[in-house]
Write a structure and sequence with these properties.
The protein is an alpha/beta fold. 40% of the residues lie in helices and 17% in strands. Strand 2, helix 2 and strand 3 form a beta-alpha-beta unit. One of its GO terms (cellular component) is side of membrane.
Length: 250
């Protein structure tokens, strides 16, 4: 006996809402590894919001530069804490781009379909609440992604973002080593640069960033947001910050 049409339709809907099956081919999200607008540099900062954000923002603004901050929800601290939320708002109000670095900085390639979505959704929700914007860019922790991550990102309308220059600040490089790497980068003078930095590193905020800005600007680069250097929208939604409620917690 054949199953009723209504039952079949319901079963198909349940399959489409869960982990991709062999019966369904999902589209992968776009992956960005470099800028496309000539002579631009996108300075991006991972793992915040953290205590050096305001200094980084002020240094960028003083140089007429725009940065891009990839925020976690609950990594170095809880994004809903008053001081952390204030940092998110500070970056956004000062003209910088804010984006997703997922909720807890987990390696997404080790997670299930549902947990990948949860890592993305929780920080998207937090940024929408705190700053009034839903990001259109997501950087997977450690730069790790697989087909499930790309398929989830496509559904969530997120551009997966990697980099083409790493200053090494999160893997033990000294300030002098990072500065030397920027020197070598400027000497090679690529057409564009998408730079990975971490706002949780004091030396990045107070030594390496001012040095890099000086060198890059002297070489004729424009220091712009990731959206500007790729020609893609920064946000899926732009509205107003929401009023804090009791469920703003980690």
């Amino acid at each position: 006996m054949f199953a009723p049409l209504a039952f079949v339709t319901m079963a198909m809907a349940l399959v489409s809402a869960t982990e991709p099956s062999r019966l369904q081919k999902r589209q992968n999200a776009q992956v960005v590894t470099n800028c496309v607008k000539p002579n631009t540099v996108a300075l991006t900062f991972d793992d915040g919001p953290w205590i050096y954000l305001q200094d980084i923002s002020n240094t960028l603004k003083a140089a007429n530069a725009t940065g891009t901050f990839f925020f976690n929800g609950n990594n170095w601290g809880c994004i809903y804490d008053q001081d952390m939320s204030a940092r998110v708002q500070y970056a956004y109000k000062n003209g910088h781009q804010i984006a997703s670095h997922t909720w807890s900085h987990a390696d997404l390639t080790t997670l299930s379909w549902d947990n990948i979505h949860n890592e993305m959704w929780l920080v998207e929700q937090a940024l929408t609440r705190i700053a009034g914007v839903t990001p259109a860019f997501m950087r997977p922790p450690y730069g790790n992604y697989n087909d499930l991550v790309l398929q989830a990102s496509y559904i969530r309308k997120q551009v997966v973002t990697i980099w083409d220059f790493d200053d090494g600040d999160s893997t033990g490089a000294s300030a002098a080593q990072s500065e030397s790497d920027y020197d070598a980068l400027v000497r090679s003078h690529p057409g564009t640069v998408l730079s990975l930095n971490h706002e949780t590193q004091e030396t990045t905020a107070h030594q390496v960033l001012p040095y890099a800005i000086q060198k890059l600007k002297a070489a004729g680069y424009q220091l712009v947001s990731l959206a500007d250097c790729t020609g893609l929208p920064a946000y899926q939604f732009v509205g107003s910050p929401q009023t804090r409620t009791s469920d703003w917690h980690c």
